[in-house]
Amino acid sequence: MSFKNLDQLYRSVIMDHYKKPRNKGSLEDGSVTIDLNNPTCGDRIHLTLQVTNGIVENAKFDGEGCSISMASASMMTQAVKGKPVEEALNLSTIFSDMMLGKELDDSIDLGDIESLSGVSKFPARIKCATLAWKAMEKGVENESHS
């Protein structure tokens, strides 16, 4: 697949998550709620996580922001649902590395999340892409201390 076709595919995936976000809303029985914003561009996220026995059983988000921010939140909630907290945090580290332009191990399958890899070329947009991930990190950290 040519770079141009791959770029177009990635844009399509991002816009799909932006226009039809997965896990949008909030959890009534959410055990962890975190609100974060990116004052640079105005993105904001309200993340609700249900964590039971060290497993992220459910994740929902609400908020406002650019397509990258909201698509990333959609992808993140899909990625961490059903995962042990440790694995969710590991995914966040891998995502952060990808945003910093680091080479990832070819054996790591990030699915739709990989479509955000091009954001690393735009430093001003990295905070947009990482906002939901930072909220998740704070949320599970708060949960482990309660």
Automatic annotation (TrEMBL):
It comes from the Bacteria. Residues 10-128 form the NIF system FeS cluster assembly NifU N-terminal domain. CDD domains: IscU_like (cd06664). GO terms for biological process: iron-sulfur cluster assembly. GO terms for molecular function: iron ion binding; iron-sulfur cluster binding. InterPro entries: NIF_FeS_clus_asmbl_NifU_N. Belongs to the NifU family. This is SUF system NifU family Fe-S cluster assembly protein.
